[in-house]
Amino acid sequence: MGSEKWIVCCFVLLMAVGGAMAAAPKKPIDVPFGRNFVPTWALDHIKYNDGGNEIQLVLDKYTGTGFQSKGSYLFGHFSMHIKMVPGDSAGTVTAFYLSSQNSEHDEIDFEFLGNRTGQPYILQTNVFTGGKGDREQRIYLWFDPTKEYHTYSVLWNMYQIALISSIFSLGKNRFFVDDIPIRVFKNCKDFGVRFPFNQPMKLYSSLWNADDWATRGGLEKTDWSKAPFVASYKGFHIDGCEASVNANYCATQGKRWWDQKAYQDLDHYQYRRLRWVRTKYTIYNYCTDRVRYPTIPPECRRDRDLF
Ligand SMILES: *[C@@H]1O[C@H](CO)[C@@H](O)[C@H](O)[C@H]1NC(C)=O
Fold first, then answer.
1. What residue segments make up the domains of the chain, in order of their start?
2. Which helix (H) or strand (E) holds 270?
3. Does the record bear Transmembrane helix in its keywords (predicted)?
4. Which of 94, 110, 113, 119 to mutate to test the pocket of ligand 1 (most atoms within 8 A of CB)?
């Protein structure tokens, strides 16, 4: 058996075992950028390496850049391997998000706020439903996101939206998958909270200058002498129910792997890890901001022990 086959074989075995105890989303399948995505703006600020299997977004004092998925999706599993801008990245923001097009739009955001050399990045997440956002959570990361590729993914079904950070690494003769849920937005329809279910979303990513707010609330400005700033991407995985932009349901709803019981909620192990992120790495959580929200937002009441 070639070593590659051996890895695949081990991986399948591992997934079979792992699948029984912890329902981690299926392993993303890496494809070239052009399979699922197109540039959105500043096309000359995107660099293609390795036949488009890796791309780099470049920010300089003239412009940032971004890209988007060709298709729109209702539910699924989406992920990207990203290596953030290294060195002095203060003032820059690298974003990966899903968004629908309408005025009462739904959106799921990962925003990575850069920092001065050696100072920690912040990961800000937000969820908009029916046009309503203001659900920011901010955390420090337990790893340096500029050193190597990490995988950021969204699992979206009728029951929950889970934002997950993972690292895939090859040990001696085994493949390690380390999935850490960093945020879960449950369907709290019964509490009167809108949940994204009837508007397809596209995926977007961009790198831009946000030194009016990003680093230490805007105190640290982008040092243009350090430009160009470069974020690298691989993976480009999409496994979703593709729908036309104006569709309001997915043709195969309820028949895809992400709808199965195992993916409808986190298991104990995943909750433990989420709680670990909450207690050790949280900088800000709208759920606990009693100045801004004197009454606890309904969706925060569901898993109270997490907040
Ligand atoms: C940048 O570093 C400073 C100092 O350690 C820290 O207060 C801040 O939270 C860090 N991150 C951002 C994005 O401002």
1. 3-306
2. helix 268-281
3. no
4. 119
